[in-house]
Amino acid sequence: MSDTPESPCATPDVDATRRRLLFGASVLPVVAGSGLAVGARPAQASLSTSARIVIAGSGLGGLALASRLSRELDGARITIIDRKEIHNYQPGYTLVATGIWPVGKVSDRNVDLVPAGVEWVREMVAEFDPEANAVVTDSGIRIEYDYLVVATGLHLDFAQIEGMDVAAIGTHGLGCVYPSPAAAEATWQAMDTFRQKGGRALMTLPATPLKCAGAPLKMTFMLADRLQQAGTRKASTIDFHSALGNIFSVPRINEEVLRRWAGLDIPVTFNSKLVAVDIGARRATVSSPEGERTEIDYDFIHVVPPMRAPDSVKNSPLSWKEGGFAAGGWLEVDPKTLRHRRFPNVFGIGDINGTAKGKTAATVKKSAPIVAQHLIEVIAGREPSQVFDGYTSCPLLLREGSALLVEFDYENNLTPSLPMIDPLQDSYFAWVMKYRLLKPAYMAVAKGRV
User: Fold this and answer.
1) pTM for the full model?
2) Which long-range contacts (CB under 8 A, 24 or more apart) does 442-445 make?
3) pLDDT tens track for 193-207
């Protein structure tokens, strides 16, 4: 695929010169914007300590914390525990799954991202023992710590969907953007095949917290756009089934997307949960809150699995034991400090946190400096001094060449960081940011540069 904003599927409605000018004009505000800046540098070695710090996970949150702490602490022993050799840029999966990016753009080597001087244990944490300040790896190695950062990410719970087979993604009209780069690429293959003739598409949304909660909406918008480009939109139907009473947790964005979908003839069925798929027969089963089951035939389906904490967190003393986050086993942190509510030497970052918002890379970008600062303060015998507002960002793809830049906080307030972009208006700037600028910003976060 081309590495310019025009992919092979792009429509020629925007002059290439205008695109280049818009791209150049967009660079400065993106670099300067408070939510997306990439130029700040962390402080150097602000505290001498012999503290043992374990970071469980080498996703964006784990790497960002390791990079910051290794620079800002002098003498600390920092250990990352994670078996993954490849670091995947998950915000790029929707670009791969809709034919915008080649799959190779979303994968990098972890060895190039783990900072020098940080010990990397290539195993997974199988057990957390916070009472004894220790973790146990899946091979049985016990590692003690003084401070712990939980950055495990989450678990895609496909087991809740009867008949679902991740290996079958890309066949029989089955798509799912979430599991891996290969699944995203296979989803595009299924979507591309479907759009050639059109037919009936079924898009789904579970009732659990999600990483990148905008991804199911992006896939729906982009499917409609791909059908339109292929000339098969009139020969197709797109139905969206949400297991919730909405499609997005921020009311203003929920209303805006529903308004746009009404104009695109994309009806939504609420409180309708995907519970089974018959992949070979291309038939889905959805269930109402009362347990009534309905079968739906489809030609293309986008499956979004329920999500929860990994077993190692869910079954540990670190998970929420009561309240709305208990069922998913999410990490029990104070939403303002991201410090564990019962174990004061434990912090969480990223998707694992049991908070009202925050399962996006943008959340890690905003919260990583705060968590690092709070951990340093606790090591120094002080209380955390900053407040995290739950900042979350979602560049919501509308069609090729246009997106909404949606930014919000715990209270569902829209918090735009770039004054020239209206979060409720179609924006080519937002498209360019998603397409070209956000991965460099992401890599800067991973390396502790912002």
Assistant:
1) 0.91
2) 442/60, 442/89, 442/91, 442/361, 442/365, 443/108, 444/38, 445/60, 445/64, 445/361, 445/364, 445/365, 445/368
3) 999 999 999 999 999
